[in-house]
Amino acid sequence: MAAAGTRLTYRRQCRYNTKSNMQRILHTPGGKLVYQAIQKKAKGPHCGDCNKALIGLPRLRPMEYRRLKNREKRVSRAYGGSRCAHCVRNRVVRAFLIEEQKCVKQVLAEKLSSVKREQEPKKKVKK
């Protein structure tokens, strides 16, 4: 891309070839070759349970998220910006089954206590 022997200088303060200081060579309209700074690629938001990328949300650098509106940062659902739909569904089902289990346990306990009451011999009251 660049002609052999063409020397380019960084346009920013950092003079080392680091991950945060990546450059690409650009041709200006005047025919010069200059460096253009490249922004780092964003990883984007991921589900806190299964670590899959969340769909419907932009992949931005952390500072860019601060500039977004709330409706752009999350999906309109419970746990919208932090959990994927599959994990939310699993949570709802798990909570429902736990409640059902509590109800069943209570019914069985009531049935057991009523059976015990019927089997107890009646005590005579002394006068």
TrEMBL record:
Q: One MF term from GO for this chain?
A: structural constituent of ribosome
Q: Which Pfam families match?
A: Ribosomal_L34e (PF01199)
Q: Please tell me whether the keyword DNA repair is annotated for this protein.
A: no
Does the record carry Calcium as a key word?
A: no
Q: Which UniProt keywords apply?
A: Ribonucleoprotein, Ribosomal protein
Which InterPro entries does the protein's record reference? Ribosomal_eL34, Ribosomal_eL34_C_sf
Q: Which example biological process does GO assign this protein?
A: translation
Q: What GO CC annotations are associated with the protein?
A: ribonucleoprotein complex; ribosome
In terms of Gene3D superfamilies, this protein maps to: 6.20.340.10, 6.20.370.70
Matching PANTHER family: 60S RIBOSOMAL PROTEIN L34
Q: Which family does it belong to?
A: Belongs to the eukaryotic ribosomal protein eL34 family.
Q: What is this protein called?
A: 60S ribosomal protein L34
